[in-house]
Write a structure and sequence with these properties.
Blueprint lengths: L2 H22 L7 H4 L18 H20 L11 H25 L7
């Protein structure tokens, strides 16, 4: 067998063994506290199905956008090695400008305010 086949066989065997062990090993002894919606033992006071505020999702999406911006700009230092680094700097500036304009727009529209 070649090396890749051996590695795949070892990984598959180990995965199957770990899945079987995790299925049969834990002790299942449910009691009243573990069967309650909250494991702390307190009875729930209200509905657990209350909707989240739309502002929460807006802030979460803004966080993801600015977090992904780092991933987009990560190859920027290696762009200096290209024959024309001006193009790389132009596109990096365009991404930053677009995100900055979007943030300013949201700020001016009041989308970042928690209380109205």
């Amino acid at each position: 067998m070649n090396l890749i086949t051996t590695i795949v066989l070892i990984a598959a065997t180990l995965s199957i063994i770990l899945a079987l062990v995790s299925f049969w090993l834990p002790l299942m002894t449910p009691d009243h506290e573990k069967l309650s919606p909250y494991e702390c033992g307190f009875d729930p006071l209200g509905s657990a199905r209350l909707p989240f505020s739309l502002r929460f999702f807006l802030v979460a999406i803004l966080f993801l956008l600015f977090d992904l911006e780092i991933a987009l700009l990560l190859p920027l230092p290696w762009g200096d090695q290209l024959p024309s680094p001006q193009i790389t700097l132009f596109w990096a500036f365009a991404v930053l400008l677009l995100l900055t304009l979007g943030l300013i727009y949201e700020w001016l529209q009041g989308g970042l305010e928690w209380a109205e």
